[in-house]
Amino acid sequence: MRGYPVLIRTLSGPAHRALTHRTGPTPRRSFSTSPRARKDYFQDLENQFKAFRDKATAAMPGSDWSPIQLNPGLPPERADIVIVGGGVIGWSVAYWLKKKERVRDGVRVLLVEKDPSYSQASTVLSAGGIRQQFSLKENILLSLASADFMKNINEHLGVVNEDPVDLQFNHSGYLFLANENVAHIMEENYVTQRDLGAKVALLSPTQLKERFPWINTDDVALASYGLENEGWFDPWTLLNAFRRKALSMGVYQCFGEVTGFTCSTQTAETTDGEMLNVKRIKYINVRMPNSLEYQPVECAVVINAAGAGSGKIAEMVGIGKGPEHSVASVPLPVEPRKRYVYVVHCPDGPGLECPFLIDYSGVYFRREGLGGNYIAGKSPEEAEEPDVSDLEVDHEFFQEKVWPLLCHRVPSFERLKVSSAWAGFYDYNTFDQNAIVGVHPLVNNMFHATGFSGHGLQQSPAVGRAVAELVLDGDFKTIDLSAFDLRRLIYQEPVLENNIV
Amino acid sequence: MEPLLSLYSLQCQLRRQCSAVACITVARRTYTPSHPTPPSFFNRVLFTLNKHFYEVEHLINWSSWLKNKVIRRKNVFYGYTQKKFGVNVAASYYILGLGGSFRFADQPEWFRPDSRGKFSYDFLNTPNSTIEEIDLSRTLINHVGLENIMSQTRLRHLRLQACPEVDDWFLARLHLFGETMEELDLSQCSRITVGGLAALQHLRKLRRLNISSLPRLKNPGLIRILLEEMLPHCEIIGVDYEQGLLQAEPPTETFTEDSVHAGSLGASRRL
């Protein structure tokens, strides 16, 4: 008797109706729920949980903790900073954001990654080199800072009770070869690099031949050799080190795809009298893998570190979709470009001293391991860019374009055999092939860190720190990257790298 | 009540101040490439508490930060000494302070600290003598502290036996001694790998290189061959050609022609 009114209050519609229906014709009452009522209760369990969760939210309005998770893969409903893209740049930004927060759990950082297997991610398909031989001051400083980070990587990214980080860094340096036409560019760059602290040496053809007897120095006028802080390492280890450390510091990770944004718009007037619509992102929609279910995450800041897919993310938020000849019509000029990497085996090729050699014709190769294997490739011409719908490798490209140049430069490569090959995407900046770091003036809470065009991995620790400074401190504090701001895209002033390839 | 409250407020302050330090967690275990020993009971308890309590996390961070501080203090840049006494005196003072010994180019005797770490200041009398041989075995020198010795460009012999902080980045910085370095001893340095040995190609005058007992080298024999190709005039000591090679199976009791033939084929395929 006592149980019956309680049951009426807590059960929802169908169970209640079942009970009243049963007690209608027979005057006998039972103290326990009958099997039919229990069955309806369990069929309705999901609604019960939802009702319980709504009550819990109503009781604790400030927190988004709930004891029952309907779908554990969903991201939290609210986050302060959402990072789109789980490559090395995304995780580097996540790590530095957590490192720079002054209060424990000061910012809630959520990182959204589309593909948990990283099968098409540019980071893991990269050749993994780091060099300071650039012509732009910012690029040199970024690489130097990243090399300094990697020197003490266990101090930065070591986690208690986990294995120390071993990047397998090969300190063999980069060797650039120039012919007479471009030797003057190499000399100017050498002066810039030396001034900023990069340890580079210029070699004449005779010195080159003495140091590396296996090079054919016929048309080489000058060579530039990196002595310190240059070489190659394992990108997967760096990515996992950043990821492990960031997760240990409390970054939320979610596997899902960003499908849209909800923004609020305000109009602003420029000095010319033009009316602009300035957007502010309020919600970012994250869709679960293989499902239509999505979660709108309320956020304050979004960081676009999606690599080759950054152009699409920018399009989703409306960058580039505006009336012609206005600020809003300039899209984010980042698109994927496919690059091939071929693994070759040559029994009598260069030995342990083989650097990362880049020829003025664009062909490059480096040693891989100790068994006479090398990694070679070449950037294709603009007109011959391969199709980017998949990651299939074109072996004809190696036969026609890469092998002849390799043999010309290193005669012993005539006897090589291709063991395997893979392809990866560059997040290619079609405007000036340099990084895009900053805020678009029309979407003022979305920070971009993309467009690295092949240099993202080597600049990732320093770029992560720069973006974290931009978000948390408001301005660059250690390295000034204002040259990479998005305003240059709107003013159409490219910042070009004046290198020999 | 009063002391407890002050302790609690101190804790809160420390919690807030140390949030920056708390993020620097360091695994200061020596690298063990195979068979990691399971952590002791005390360590397991400590790590379980570390997951649940901020105070334990701070204590663990402080202990690793203190260990780092010792190494950092040993490798500080002797800029003041260099400015006041000259680069040679600064380098000598640094080496003796670390616990190493050296010999000037124009004198036959070695300057060493005694067993208690005390040394004589006679090197002040010869500020213009450059150092020719340095023995930094079992000291805490790392790639930062190498800056103090960079000025000694006429260095010929460098001994770094069992130095725990010498790693590949240290070897990459040795290119400055490329014209003069003749002997280098890297035995028992637990952090050196092949990537660092590849950087030794800048030492064109190297005559003797000791790479015995480097635990992180997977194929010492192969690396010896590659180093000998890279540095043709250099003698590599401490490694046999057979080290790192997979051994063939010993032949079985019953000797039939087929089994012997198959065994030798298998061995040649594996090698």
From TrEMBL, chain A:
Residues 15-37 are annotated as: Disordered. Keywords: Electron transport, FAD, Flavoprotein, Membrane, Mitochondrion, Mitochondrion inner membrane, Oxidoreductase, Respiratory chain, Transmembrane, Transmembrane helix, Transport. It is a single-pass membrane protein. One of its GO terms (molecular function) is oxidoreductase activity. It is found in: Mitochondrion inner membrane. Its cofactor is FAD. The keyword Thylakoid does not apply. GO terms for biological process: mitochondrial respiratory chain complex I assembly. The keyword Lyase does not apply. Required for the assembly of the mitochondrial membrane respiratory chain NADH dehydrogenase (Complex I). Involved in mid-late stages of complex I assembly. This is FAD-dependent oxidoreductase domain-containing protein 1. It comes from Astyanax mexicanus (Blind cave fish). The lineage of its organism: Eukaryota, Metazoa, Chordata, Craniata, Vertebrata.
From TrEMBL, chain B:
It comes from Astyanax mexicanus. InterPro entries: LRR_dom_sf. This is Distal membrane arm assembly component 2. Residues 250-271 are annotated as: Disordered.
